[in-house]
Amino acid sequence: MSHDLGTAPLLGLRANVAQFSLLVVVNALVGGMLGQERTVLPLLAEYVFGLSSYTAALTYILAFGLAKAATNYLAGIWSERHGRKPVLVAGWVVALPVPLLLIWATDWWMVVAANVLLGISQGLTWSTTVIMKIDLVGPRRRGLALGINESAGYLAVAVTALLTGRIAAEAGLRPEPFLVGIAYAALGLGLSTLLVRETRGHADHEAVQAEGPASRVSDREVFVRTSLRDPALSSASQAGLVNNLNDGLAWGLFAVLFASVGLDIGHVGLLVAAYPAVWGIGQLATGALSDRWGRKPLIVGGMLLQSVALGLVAAVGSAGWWLLAAVLLGVGTAMVYPTLLAVIGDVAHPSWRARAVGVYRLWRDLGFAVGALMAGVLADLWGVRGAVWAVAAVTAASGLVVVLRMPETHRRAGPS
């Protein structure tokens, strides 16, 4: 698709600040839909549904991860074929019944079903807000843009986890905490339908300006390049998977571990919220820093810091030390999360970038499923602390893979 000079869309954060800001708000609501579960669902599994096996209790995270991973891949393909906005709106429609199912669930399979829908919704909505922001800002400030996007989403996860924990401490585990999710879903659908504008034209315009010909690349070739062949893309994909393996462990087991020493729901909610809060705030800085310093140093440092933080979680047993570990884990994740997405934007040609983002997010969010399964099995075998130690070791190994295999991808890396 070509544009003449009179109709070509402008690229850049400042030129698109209104739509960009709206998409930040929308992604905060997407994150809030995830945050409604972080404190409450692990406690529901234990105290309401009486699930004594960690493997059984974490089935909802396994279902969420598999559904989200598959939908991420499809979202990238569909957003290129049908446009970004229809995919975003469809994701919010799928989100509407999630809090209702969590309120009405009488058997654990209903909770698992709700998380299948939540995974589909998150795959459609979060993937699309990422793609749309990459479309709008162009190549110069991609790290900053993605840092803002991910910051909004994970700050909302933290705030909502803290809020629903407080509500649960005062009013019980159901239904009041999930009324927040109903409000988020309704507002997200309304904003996406009425105010968000299509951004595919921005990507088409950037593709015309991009260096090198925009030859047709098949879906299979994009998958192979992003998963295996390209050293930068594949290194980012494995690091993303391990990063979310951490998060699946934290989501499923941290609340149970913190409650096991006698902390009440309010204090558990505070500790659970601290990690995504620091993660969210930190990305405001780390995304921009990756535009100045390059991607690789932040990714390697972040993965190794996550490993240290997880080891601290496993080694200590008091709220103060756990708070420090949560802060360190949040800092490490903030260094990695927007930077990996920026790597994909750096390397993938605009003509197939949305599909590359979808493949990367497929692998990244499979980490939820792998983390839930691994954490559940290891916690049943070795206890919660043993599971955390094992994931800390895997995270350190992932950082070393990046050291050995990933080249620097940002053209402006180094002193300005």
UniProtKB/TrEMBL annotation:
<keyword id="KW-0812">Transmembrane</keyword>
<dbReference type="InterPro" id="IPR011701">
    <property type="entry name" value="MFS"/>
</dbReference>
<dbReference type="GO" id="GO:0005886">
    <property type="term" value="C:plasma membrane"/>
</dbReference>
<feature type="transmembrane region" description="Helical">
    <location>
        <begin position="298"/>
        <end position="316"/>
    </location>
</feature>
<dbReference type="Pfam" id="PF07690">
    <property type="entry name" value="MFS_1"/>
</dbReference>
<feature type="domain" description="Major facilitator superfamily (MFS) profile">
    <location>
        <begin position="16"/>
        <end position="410"/>
    </location>
</feature>
<dbReference type="InterPro" id="IPR036259">
    <property type="entry name" value="MFS_trans_sf"/>
</dbReference>
<keyword id="KW-1003">Cell membrane</keyword>
<feature type="transmembrane region" description="Helical">
    <location>
        <begin position="54"/>
        <end position="75"/>
    </location>
</feature>
<dbReference type="InterPro" id="IPR020846">
    <property type="entry name" value="MFS_dom"/>
</dbReference>
<feature type="transmembrane region" description="Helical">
    <location>
        <begin position="177"/>
        <end position="196"/>
    </location>
</feature>
<dbReference type="InterPro" id="IPR050171">
    <property type="entry name" value="MFS_Transporters"/>
</dbReference>
<dbReference type="GO" id="GO:0022857">
    <property type="term" value="F:transmembrane transporter activity"/>
</dbReference>
<feature type="transmembrane region" description="Helical">
    <location>
        <begin position="144"/>
        <end position="165"/>
    </location>
</feature>
<feature type="transmembrane region" description="Helical">
    <location>
        <begin position="87"/>
        <end position="105"/>
    </location>
</feature>
<feature type="transmembrane region" description="Helical">
    <location>
        <begin position="366"/>
        <end position="382"/>
    </location>
</feature>
<keyword id="KW-0472">Membrane</keyword>
<feature type="transmembrane region" description="Helical">
    <location>
        <begin position="322"/>
        <end position="345"/>
    </location>
</feature>
<protein>
    <submittedName>
        <fullName>MFS transporter</fullName>
    </submittedName>
</protein>
<feature type="transmembrane region" description="Helical">
    <location>
        <begin position="12"/>
        <end position="34"/>
    </location>
</feature>
<feature type="transmembrane region" description="Helical">
    <location>
        <begin position="388"/>
        <end position="406"/>
    </location>
</feature>
<feature type="transmembrane region" description="Helical">
    <location>
        <begin position="111"/>
        <end position="132"/>
    </location>
</feature>
<dbReference type="InterPro" id="IPR005829">
    <property type="entry name" value="Sugar_transporter_CS"/>
</dbReference>
<keyword id="KW-1133">Transmembrane helix</keyword>
<keyword id="KW-0813">Transport</keyword>
